[in-house]
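Course assignment 3, question 2. Fill in each field.
Student: A.L.
Task: Predict the tertiary structure for the chain below.
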Amino acid sequence: MRRVITRKLKMDKNFQPFSKCEGEEFYQNGIFEFNITKLLTFITTNPDIFQPELVSIKVLRKFVSSSLDEATIQTADIKNPILLAEIAPDKFNVIDGNHRLERAYRDEVEMISTYKVYAEQHIDFLASVSAYENYIRYWHEKIKE
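Answer field:
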């Protein structure tokens, strides 16, 4: 039996993204762009909320991006947790750590440390008002499916 997701996200008409600072890392996931630098800071300063958990490499590694840099894969520190963002209800995507994931796969590691970040937690780290509004609409469409 499939679980019914009913979590609605409330639209904040006054949403303002964090200002972009030089040197920050961003991740583009379709029409959604996340401020990875500020999200990681939030995670590390809230250890009571975010506990690393182990997830199977086989579950996470659904496809390999052709844009991964080989040198970065070779030097990736797989002890550093990767970020999984809830992009749709109960569906998580890697938004930070694809090089670490590929390195772990090549090293035949079975599990990797992750931070799971739920929609309610990462929505504030969308990089624009349009991404924020589109995300909420997208989320609500996924609830209807």
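Instructor remarks: The chain has a mean pLDDT of 90. The longest helix spans residues 129-144.
Grade: pending
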